[in-house]
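SAMPLE LOG
Freezer: B-3
Tube label: C17
Construct: single chain, 266 aa
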Amino acid sequence: MLLVTDLPAQYYGVQPQSETWSLGLKVGNAMIKGEVQPEFPSYQVGLYGQKSLGRAVDVRLQVQGGFIYGLNGTPSAGFMNNPAWNGTNNPLAAYDSLDMVYDNFRMEFYDLSFLFKLNLNRLGAYGGEGWDLYALAGVGAMLYQTKVDAYNAATADRYRFEGIAANDPRQTRQKLRELLDGEYETLAEQDYYNSSHLGKYTVNTLFTLGGGIKFMLGTHLALGLEGRYNFIGDDLLDGQQWQDSQNITPEADRLLSASLLLEYVF
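STRUCTURE (predicted):
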């Protein structure tokens, strides 16, 4: 009996956990935790390759990208320091101190990450057959560009935000959606001192934590849900860092994401 139970997995036609590779597709939502309220839907798409190092540990190389939107339902009083609104980045969007402005943005981003995946339910000698509950941690690089919808492209004029009541932020946001043309023609403020740049794109180091759950649908296919919390060290992901007091906000923005994943194991 001992000889039978100790036979290697290959004897039964089962591939050892340490020899498995996976390819995955991720689709989901992303948002910026910053000074501008998230708009939905925002979206991201990603691909990854993954190699098992043992029963409980995998390594993953992942690339993903997407578009994230934001729109505030309350006016900003600190916009005069923001080059996207004071005419520095776009002369057609030169608002003055008597104007009313509602911050908005669209961020286009791409990231390449190297991640360690710890399968929590496989830490013991048994368990985890057919499903995984896991934690993620890793590092990578993110390239992004944020733009602002600061003027009406059809009339080549600034928006007249004064006609929008600011009593109810939810109703205000709906009226703003009807007013804005969605062109996002004006480059948002960028940090030229603490970040690297590639053309009009900002490049930053990314640190990520996350987790998820995955279920096998058969011998080779798996379906799962996954979330990530990304630390970039940049307060301009949403294009806004100015408080109403004209001081810079003390905290950097965060990038959060939730995805549905489809994985092929071979």
